[in-house]
User: Fold this.
Amino acid sequence: MKHTVVVGYDQSPSGDRALAQAGREAAWRDAGVTVVTGFHWIAVPSPMGYMPADIQTPLQDAAEKVAADGVRWLRRHYPGMPVDSAVISGPTADAIAEASRDAEVLVLGNRGRGGFAGLLLGSVSMRTLTLASCPTMVVRGEPREPADSVVLALDIEDAADSVIGFAFTEAAARGARLRAISAWDLGWTRTAEPEGAAGLDTAKARFMTDIRTTAAARLNPWQAKFPDVRCTIEAADEPPSAVLTRATQTADLIVAGAHRRADGHLGMRPGPIVHTLLHQAECPVAVVPR
Assistant:
């Protein structure tokens, strides 16, 4: 079956960036793109229980024009790439998540609000992420020249092949190096009394060595599958959110994992580190279901 990249598109500036990223992702994967646009009408409850035609028709026509513009842009920049569209009635986040159920990757724009547009993730993108069942990329940060670097937020206590494999695949497609970062906040070691500091320093050094050793054991099988990807392992003694956010300043993409929902429904439960990246990262953020 042909691989597909799905992009939520609304003609906003962040939507335009997501559309461009979706085209690149599809080209790297030899995949097609589906441009999804949703339209929604919240009416006063009535026994009729449906959207009146005189309301639905103009809303649907407007959504179809938006999707068609996205399709034309992709076909112009990527001749020969399979591109189609889906215009869906209903809450936007639900529509996009449903349309991307079988996609290889879903691409969304970061939609900020107010004076914090560079920091805050829009509510539609956040809800879509929590409903998505495939790797989801939120395009953040200002446009810039490629840094040829992909960052993997590596949780060695809960490392998942789906997350590691996605990071290696992205690095290989981009011809980029992969920085696997495992960060631990060992602040408690800095509160020791002077007479115990030497022993704690030794313990911390051994701990960081063990982190690198464990990380290498998890990454080695993937390095064998992707021998052309130059992968480095970094162990940091700092709060993970701070380390990883700083790493996005010189990265093209950061990849992190999120657990699937435990209630039997599709979707992900982003943890606090992923939440921080989604709001503060200076490059696109890919969240991969564990």
